[in-house]
Amino acid sequence: MSNNTKKSLEYDLFQLDNDIRVVHKFMPHTKIAHCGFMLDIGTRDETADVAGIAHFWEHMAFKGTEKRKSFHIINRLESVGGELNAYTTKDKICFYASFMEEHYEKAVELLADITFNSIFPSKEIEKERGVILEEMSMYIDLPEEAICDEFENLVFKNHPLGTNILGSANSVKKISKTDFHDFINKHLDTSKIIFSSVGNISIDKVKYFAQKYFGDVAPKSSIYKRKVFKNYKAKRSDIIKPFSQSHIVVGREAYHVFHPDRLKLFMITNLLGGPGMNSRLNLALRERHGLVYNVEASYTSFTDTGLLEIYCGTEKKHLPKVYEIILHELKRLRETSLGTLQLSSYKSQLIGQLAMAEESNASLMQMMAKSILDMGTIDALEDIFYKISIITSSQLQEIAEDIFEENQLSYLTYQSE
After folding, report:
1. Most exposed of 158, 208, 318, 326 (fewest Cβ within 10 Å)?
2. pTM of this prediction?
């Protein structure tokens, strides 16, 4: 293990000899700890014939290791009140746990075991295949989720970023034990693995347990390079669906994680359709006209591109009016700069939301891992607050003129029958 421990922005960061990096934030006033492994592997790294294998792997990690069967994995932390979980995104897989701090060693050992020692038992593959196919069936009945995934496919057409995280029924039915090993061997790179930790645990203990339980994982590098997304073109698709309500998504490709205006776009997205009930779209569509129950805008950034989406559901007869209002609100952002009081209010709201989000230590643990994997560092919250404080109305208007140009927007509609 390298002795070059970096202490930066109240986070400790060090690297093991096998290139796995460990980040820890000491939190003295809590009895609950959170930790996990985040791997820079996701569904964008799959080929069409094994689409869904990253998500399938996430499931299979709980189904058996070299020394544990499924029941023993599940029971290890749950028997002491802890929680073991995982998730897959377009570019990440995360295995993580939350537990009382006295069980920290137990959690680290278990997480290392399921991350690096899964054996993919054939019987369990068949069982979990059925579970995932059932998950797909349930997902089809959730139009608010299905339409957003289908919109990603519309924006990132013919690119792995457009592939559904679950894969397809045909691909999942064909995935074999050999496929899991081949996928892991091709993509696993220990320099792109972060163990992230938050809790009332000393850095010396974190170092000791990291070395003990995954310090001997063999170093591995991958020559695989992700396909960069290029040449976005605006598209429109209208699909008839057997739902009682119609659903729409408006959006486009957006800024990547390194873009200098990423934070400004995040702020615009938040004021447009963030979690606050005073977002512009909520006020316009729900409070003034009663056309929707829920409307939201989201912005996701990757290392090479990004995605902005506006989603809502409404009655079929209201679709023209809903589209008209959305486009009107985007036009307002393009053509009218925020007043001084408006800008100050939106800044205060965003800063408050970010501050409250960091109160969730489980989310903080995951954010630290993702930030280091994507950018190699973690921005201090105070630095982010400062960057927000110096944003000007004219800067936000310039971003709106760029991102919300109407002929660059894509549209997807699920029209009810």
Report:
1. 158
2. 0.93
